[in-house]
Write a structure and sequence with these properties.
It is a single chain. The chain is α+β, with helices and mostly antiparallel strands. The chain is built from 7 helices and 4 strands; from the N terminus they run βααααβββααα. The strands form 2 sheets. Strands 1-4 form a two-stranded parallel sheet. A two-stranded antiparallel ribbon has the order 2-3. Helix 2 crosses helix 3 and helix 3 packs across helix 4. It starts with 8 loop residues before the first strand and ends with a helix. The model has no long low-confidence stretch (mean pLDDT about 85).
């Protein structure tokens, strides 16, 4: 399926879908399929899995509707399947207060796994913003991410951009959580 035919977003709405995306290995498989289709063997090589494990995780993603077979070909009598993402982006439900943010956990795991020798920009800034400034910054960050996503070339090395703009828990909320 050409990228132009992909729906823009896939909204995770079921428990099966949430379980599928909550797994770090499946997160990494979806990252492989982000820009181009791949076979089970190609996925296994890129993620560092055995083919059987790769096949298991891809089947779960396929059953949840997150990836799909986009083309097949015969190779020495065996049908080789190429898998791709079912949409350009995945929208997760809000984890709710105190709930785990799956994407941030996966992003942190990927950041920790990345070579310290590789080029990277990591920064945390504490800001004091009005509600309007907060909303404007969120909109600008999303637009910048969309702008660079449109420039993405599958032949170039993979790059991850993760940002979180949020109001941290108040000191009183944090103290209450720590007391539990």
């Amino acid at each position: 399926m050409p990228a132009d035919d992909l729906p823009e977003t896939f909204h995770v709405t079921t428990d099966e879908q949430l379980r599928a995306v909550s797994n770090l290995t499946r997160h990494r498989i979806m990252a492989v399929l982000r820009f181009e289709p791949a076979t089970i063997t190609q996925i296994a090589d890129r993620v560092g899995l055995a083919k059987g494990s790769s096949s298991y995780h891809v089947r779960l993603l396929e059953r949840a509707g997150l990836v799909k077979v986009v083309r097949t070909r015969k190779v020495r009598g065996v049908t080789e399947r190429y898998y791709a993402m079912a949409a350009r982006s995945i929208v997760l439900p809000d984890p709710g207060e105190g709930g785990p943010d799956v994407l941030m956990r996966h992003a942190m795991a990927d950041l920790e796994r990345a070579s310290a020798d590789s080029a990277r920009h990591v920064r945390m800034a504490h800001l004091r913003l009005t509600d309007e400034q907060f909303a404007e910054l969120g909109t600008r960050l999303e637009a910048l991410a969309d702008e660079y996503r449109a420039l993405s070339d599958p032949s170039l090395p993979d790059t991850s951009l993760v940002f979180a703009l949020f109001h941290p828990a108040s000191r009183a909320q944090a103290a209450e959580e720590d007391a539990k």
